[in-house]
Design brief:
Layout: E1 8-11, H1 17-23, E2 31-35, E3 38-42, H2 48-54, E4 66-68, H3 74-77, H4 80-87, E5 97-101, H5 102-105, E6 121-125, E7 129-134, E8 137-141, E9 154-158, E10 161-166, H6 175-178, E11 184-191, E12 202-203, H7 204-214, E13 218-222, H8 230-244, E14 248-250, E15 256-258, H9 262-268
Parallel strand pairs: 3-4, 4-5, 5-6, 10-11, 11-12, 11-13, 13-14
Antiparallel strand pairs: 1-2, 1-15, 2-3, 7-8, 8-9, 9-10
Helix pairs in contact: 7-8
The protein binds zinc ion (ZN).
Pfam families: Lactamase_B_2
Region (Disordered): 268-288
Protein name: Beta-lactamase domain protein
Length: 288
């Protein structure tokens, strides 16, 4: 008997913005969703291919079905061409889907132009556009974010699961409605406090406002910057859990989240201060 599909989300990297990435205090490999026949890699920053190949269990780029670049900043796209080459055996096996904003394909091609010919399909992310990635699995970009370059968060839908990922952005009043109704909400939480237009990133205060409005079954903070090293990020997530009543965790490099058992992860986001073993287990790399 074939066992039911096991659905997971792997955090190859949790680094947010320039300094966390350039120091590699956190990794910058992006996320890999494994959903009902679709493996989707989002935002492969510098080192992503190395992180995938050294990850346990290994992420095999040749089995990735879709590569999603949410915007053309280095920490989201530094390894994009490397991943496209690995997905397609250097272009000899055209396969998979590449999704990116138009300015990341044309104005500043973060996948080099020669390699944009390698995937079987290239799709352009745009407000309200939905892409089918596998039977029953769709990715939709509900709204353009406020981040200086063309940027999209996304909603992923699979049978029985709806997830949202609010990527880099300044706070927008449209965010709660755009990401409403999700079971799992990922929030790129780069700073402790938002509200500073020099950075165009969400703070933990913005993340709390969003989590309180959307009320997913589980919220996860990721894309964490220098103000949110692991223990501070855990504390910020715990505060959000306490104040909103929504279980919230801070991601760690290498964490494999079991999407078929969100309540187990939610239970860890409980009411006590996070001990070393209370959060997602780190995998190698720099310690907290
Ligand atoms: Zn960015």
């Amino acid at each position: 008997m074939i066992p039911p599909a096991h659905r997971t989300l792997k955090f190859l990297g949790t680094a947010g913005a320039r300094f966390a990435v350039s120091t590699q205090l956190r990794h910058s490999g992006g996320l890999v969703w494994s959903l009902d026949g679709a493996t989707i890699w989002v935002d492969p920053g510098p080192g992503a291919l190395v992180r995938a190949l050294s990850s346990r269990p290994k992420v095999d780029p040749a089995k990735v079905d879709a590569l999603v670049i949410t915007h053309r900043h280095l920490d989201h796209a530094g390894d994009a061409t490397a991943v496209v080459e690995a997905m397609t055996r250097g272009g000899f096996s055209p396969r998979g889907t590449l999704l990116a904003p138009r300015d990341a394909l044309e104005t500043e091609p973060v996948v080099f132009r020669y390699a944009q010919a390698f995937p079987a399909r290239v799709g352009v992310l745009a407000p309200g556009v939905r892409h089918a990635l596998a039977p029953g699995v769709t990715l939709e970009t509900p709204v353009a974010h406020d981040h200086g370059v063309e940027t999209y968060g996304y909603l992923l839908s699979a049978p029985g699961l709806r997830a949202g990922h609010v990527v880099d952005t300044f706070w927008m009043d449209a965010l709660p409605e755009a990401y409403a109704g999700v079971d799992l909400l990922l929030v790129n939480t780069t700073r402790l406090r938002g509200g500073d237009r020099r950075y165009l990133h969400l703070g933990a205060d913005d993340a709390e406002r969003l989590v309180a409005a959307v009320r997913p079954r589980l919220a996860v903070l990721t894309h964490l910057g220098m103000q949110l090293p692991p223990r501070k990020a855990d504390a910020a997530a715990l505060e959000i859990s306490r104040r909103t009543g929504v279980p919230t965790l801070a991601a760690r490099d290498g964490w494999l989240l079991d999407l078929d058992d969100l309540p187990a992860a939610a239970a860890r986001a409980g009411s006590r201060a996070p001990a070393a073993d209370a959060g997602p287990a780190p995998e190698g790399g720099p310690a907290a």
